[in-house]
Design goal:
alpha/beta; Nucleotidyltransferase, domain 5; six-stranded mixed β-sheet; globular
């Protein structure tokens, strides 16, 4: 028995998943503290392995993507120390099995590519992936398979924190649905504006993006939700074909498999 360890280093969280073949048997999320040391991460990861009865000596594959360069080297050092394995770091030049149609392919976030690969293999195309985290990111796949770009908007949590920080009388609130879209107090008004405002932004952007997909394929578009804040939005709209919180991790697994097979052929 051997395991694959997939790690997605995001701006707010580091997400970790352990795969046995194509199934996640354990996952974990921790803060992306930029001053975290490799020793600290090694200790946290070792505790995660212990609490989930995972033998680290059985981890023989590592796949990683990062949008926080200052953390990448720190975590790579930790992974090599713990597992004696060299991780696949998804980036420019990594084989993905999809065509990337972007002005500068190196500018596409590695997590966005992982999501595109995962949606291509799991759901098929055409598809729109909406990743709700620090930012709200839309990525578009069409048949080919081709990744053709997307859109980036602020994340709902970041926006709520910003308005509380930048105003003197508006408080930070819990992002839950108020009793009515018409708030009867300041907290309900903020909750309504942010929750329903973001729901309709996402619905509106999805509708607008679909108009740019070939008319014969528009009705076939599958809209997939992912990201740490998806649970706030998805109960309040019916546009999603599926909610897959582990989409990025699955993309990392699939990319690792693609590269292993290509290397084996060589």
């Amino acid at each position: 028995m051997s395991f694959l360890l997939a790690i997605d280093i995001g701006n707010t969280n580091i997400t970790v998943g352990v795969f046995l073949r194509d199934k996640i048997i354990a996952d974990w999320r921790l803060s992306s503290r930029i001053n975290k040391t490799s020793d600290e991460f090694s200790l946290e990861l070792s505790n995660f392995f212990t609490s989930n009865d995972i033998d680290k000596t059985k981890i023989n594959e590592l796949s990683l993507c990062s949008v926080v360069p200052t953390l990448t080297d720190t975590i790579v050092v930790s992974l090599k120390s713990l597992t004696n394995q060299e991780p696949l770091i998804v980036g420019p030049g990594t084989r993905t099995g999809i065509q990337i149609n972007y002005d500068r392919t190196q500018d596409v976030g590695a997590d966005r590519i992982a999501n595109a690969v995962a949606v291509n293999h799991i759901y098929g195309n055409p598809a729109i992936v909406i990743d709700m985290g620090t930012a709200t990111v839309f990525d578009v796949m069409i048949k080919g398979p081709k990744y053709i770009g997307g859109a980036i908007a602020p994340g709902i949590q970041v926006s709520a924190e910003a308005i509380a920080r930048e105003t003197s009388q508006l408080p930070k609130v819990e992002l839950v649905a108020p009793s009515s879209v018409i708030g009867k107090n300041t907290i309900e008004s903020i909750q309504s504006g942010f929750l329903y405002g973001f729901v309709h932004m996402i619905e509106g952007m999805t509708k607008r993006i679909k108009t740019k997909i070939h008319k014969n394929e528009r009705d076939l578009v599958k809209v997939i939700a992912t990201g740490g804040l998806a649970h706030i939005i998805t109960p309040h709209t019916n546009i999603f074909y599926d909610v897959n919180k582990d989409l990025t991790l699955h993309g990392l697994r699939i990319i690792k498999d693609i590269n292993q097979k290509d290397n084996a052929v060589k």
